[in-house]
Amino acid sequence: MRVPADHKDDFMEKKSVDTIHLVRNPNLLIIRNTPKGRALFATSSIPSHTILEVSPVLIFPTSDLAFLKQTFADHYTYNWPLDHPSVPGKTITTQALALGLGSIFNHSARNQNVGFRRDVAREVIVYETLRDVEVGEELCVNYGMRLWFEDADGVGGDEDEILENGIRAKDREIEKGEAVLGAIKI
């Protein structure tokens, strides 16, 4: 199969919503047997604001969410906004599974060095370093405050400032459903 004629220019210009340009940083290594299970590490220094991965997502229909909650896969999904089917301008939330390395990043509240943002139009999640990363350092995102496991980092620190209703300051934007994930703003 060849690229359709109406998308050939997309390879050079990277404009089309219908074209997804996948990115994976070559300086990444998965180690399977760590205290956190599988983990992703830097094999060389990686500067701040470097895109590590562009992961396509598998978006679950809202009708599948009750079943999804009963599966192991639910631990690897991200909230994903969809246009409301009958109310123009309103969105609903479903779940999406990040493919590629997107489901390999472990959690760290204190040592988060990777942020992520949803590109809803292209149905991908973009993972980017938040600071300079050293050789051998684990690459971690912050899963937020609703963890289903014991946090290896423990609790505390300025990032855990609690606001009203028990929501941390850094999680409030996510709770509002805005496109702010892991400290990267769109």
Write the layout of secondary structure elements.
Blueprint: H1 10-13, E1 28-34, E2 37-42, E3 51-59, H2 65-68, E4 77-83, E5 91-98, E6 106-107, E7 114-119, E8 124-129, E9 140-141, H3 169-175, E10 180-181, E11 184-185
Parallel strand pairs: 6-9
Antiparallel strand pairs: 1-2, 3-5, 3-8, 4-5, 7-8, 10-11
Short summary:
The protein is mainly β and 186 residues long.
Give an account of the 3D structure.
Helix content is 8%, strand content 31%. The strands form four sheets. The protein has a five-stranded antiparallel β-sheet, with no helix packed on it. The chain is globular and about 50 Å long.
Number of strands: 11
Main beta-sheet annotation: 5 strands, antiparallel
Strand content: 25-35%
Global outline: globular
Radius of gyration: 18 Å
Counting DSSP H or I runs of 4 or more residues, the number of helices is: 3
- State the end-to-end CA separation: 34 Å
Structural class: mainly beta
**Percentage of helical residues?**
under 10%
Low-pLDDT segments? 155-186
Average predicted local confidence, pLDDT: 77
Secondary-structure element order, as H and E? HEEEHEEEEEEHEE
User: Main sheet: which strands, in order across?
Assistant: 4-5-3-8-7
